[in-house]
Design goal:
CATH architecture of the largest domain: Sandwich
Oligomer: single chain
Helix content: 10-25%
Strand content: 25-35%
Order of helices and strands: HEEEEEEEHEEEEEE
Largest sheet: 6 strands, antiparallel
Radius of gyration: 35 Å
Shape: elongated
Number of helices: 2
Distance between the termini: 81 Å
Number of strands: 13
Strand order of the largest sheet: 1-13-6-9-10-11
CATH topology of the largest domain: Jelly Rolls
Length: 266
């Protein structure tokens, strides 16, 4: 066969092109359809990939974002709305801090009992060392200052218990007179300290300034009472009222934040 330019009809006109003596041809419409399908698949793949990447980005942001929104603030930084005081002395708010006069008494939250949660308390001592405590697992609403001591637990605040002829069972972050500190992590006044106290059923875990200092479960062995002001031994409930102590004018501790959040289920 002899070829000439007449044998070729431009593709743009929808014609057919003869090559090398054969009749093989490509239909332009079919070619366009194939190209269109290919582009559609490509676009769909890109959209799916974009969606997956966006989802992974959201998960990453959620994983590393601060959990500030999870915390429920019990202290509003302005006044003692929602709180009650029992015992000698009193508490008040000054410069955004909970402060106290006299003692020994307790400022507690009567609105509910707390369990299976994390309690965050940010505090500092007025002097280099002071004495106070965060009370947890109080079984009933207290009516006088000694009841929380004997029937709840006190997470102690005192970096130098030896000044009161007490031993390390009375150091900051311990369950007062029941546990020894795993690590002594308390900062002297006027530096800020942060407790994160986890109530996980019958288990109490205390982190102080990011370091675990106490890990106690009901039934663990504890020492006998040495002083009559130490708590009566015995089990405490899985949930209870919470509060902070005013020990006396010589032992002033200021509280900047008291917050709770639910314990995440495993």
């Amino acid at each position: 066969m002899t070829y000439s330019w007449c044998n070729f009809v431009p593709w743009s006109l929808g014609g057919k092109k003869k090559l090398f003596g054969g009749d093989s041809s490509i239909n332009l419409i079919k070619m366009k359809n194939r190209i269109s399908k290919f582009k559609s698949r490509k676009v769909l793949m890109v959209e799916k990939l974009t969606g997956v990447l966006l989802f992974l980005m959201i998960l990453t942001i959620m994983a590393f974002a601060p959990d500030r929104q999870e915390w429920r603030q019990l202290f509003n930084g302005k006044d003692l709305t929602g709180w009650k005081h029992i015992g000698p002395g009193d508490h008040y708010v000054e410069d955004g801090l909970i402060k106290s006069h006299g003692g020994m008494g307790l400022l507690y939250w009567p609105g509910e009992q707390f369990g299976n949660c994390v309690i965050k308390v940010v505090y500092r001592m007025r002097d280099e060392n002071s004495n106070s405590g965060v009370f947890i697992r109080i079984p009933i609403e207290p009516r006088e200052e000694w009841m929380p001591i004997h029937y709840g637990y006190e997470v102690q605040i005192d970096n130098k218990p030896e000044l009161s002829d007490e031993d390390e069972y009375h150091y900051t972050g311990t369950i007062y007179s029941l546990t020894k500190p795993i690590v002594k992590a308390g900062k002297p006044g006027p530096e800020w300290n942060t407790f994160e106290i986890t109530l996980d059923g019958p288990r109490t875990i205390v982190f102080l300034n990011g370091v675990k200092v106490t890990d106690y479960t009901e039934g663990d062995p504890v020492p006998e009472r040495v002083f009559d002001f130490e708590p009566i031994r015995g089990p405490r409930p899985d949930k209870g009222f919470i509060g902070v102590q005013n020990h006396g004018d010589a032992d002033l501790v200021y509280y900047k934040e008291i917050a709770v959040k639910k314990l995440k289920k495993k």
